[in-house]
Amino acid sequence: MSDDLISRKAVLGTECLLMTDIVENNPTAKYILEQVLYDVEHAETAFDKEKVIEQIKVLSTGIILNTNICDDYAEGYVRAAKDIIEIVEKGGIG
User: Residue 77 sits in which domain range?
Assistant: First the structure.
């Protein structure tokens, strides 16, 4: 199994597809499915977008403040940090 990040919302959205008459009429299957859905809903978050963005801002600011670099070079760091933050906000999609 890979470490790909997936959408919890998408997984939980399959619930209506899984709750068919077969599952509804089978107490064991229904219990197992409900437990799986509960586990997905309460699983630990693997990626905190806001924390990553904050770390990028702190790191890029620290690089600029703690080095003797010219304004053009500092501006390039700021631009790169903004581009990186945009990628993180999109989740690498689009």
Answer: 49-90
Residues 6+ apart with CB under 8 A from 3: 46
| pTM, full prediction | 0.49
Number of domains in the chain: 2
Q: Could you tell me where the DSSP H helices lie in 25-70?
A: 27-41, 49-65
Q: What is the pLDDT along the chain (94 residues), one digit of tens a residue?
A: 566 677 777 777 766 666 676 777 888 888 888 888 888 888 887 777 888 888 888 877 766 666 666 666 667 777 888 888 888 888 766 5
DSSP state of 80: H
Q: Say if 3 falls within a structural domain.
A: no
